Amino acid sequence: MSNFEDADTQETVTCLQMTLYHPGHQQSGIFQSIRFFNREKHHSSEVVKFGRNSNTCHYTFQDKQVSRVQFSLQLFRKFDSPVVSFEIKNMSKKTNLIVDNRELGYLNKMDLPDRCMIRFGNYQFLVEKEDGQSLEFFEIQFFLSKRPLLQENNWLPQPMPECGSYSSCVTQNNSPMEVGENDW
Would strands 14-21 and 123-130 be described as parallel, antiparallel, or unpaired? Predict the structure, then answer.
């Protein structure tokens, strides 16, 4: 047998491609610790944390508005599926995380769609999953956008209610209300 026949087959690795945007990224150095364009490999058992605490988080943001641990990503495989997925969990007590148009409070988690927008504060992350076969590793690759991702990708977020949170706005009175001409 030749060496070619004995060689191990190399599996492709699932990669999360994350395009980041913040309006003050050029002046403040918010993303200075992020290595853009490089694919960074993680073991499948790792919980990858994002925040401002460099002792705890894999990826840090130089911004006091960001929680010590803002959110985490973890790889998993659904029952009867060869494809791996990610779940996202909000780790911030002070800021809700918005994934597409779903608002996650502290410790809420959900399956991360294959293509989605993650938002908190002035941060916007366009996340796109590139499937691979490996169950041992996954990769994360970062890109930087100089323009707001919501507009650039024609993302239509729901407007934020006046009360500041989707979940805290509960209509107490379901009966019709009279509205004057000037109230529109």
Answer: antiparallel
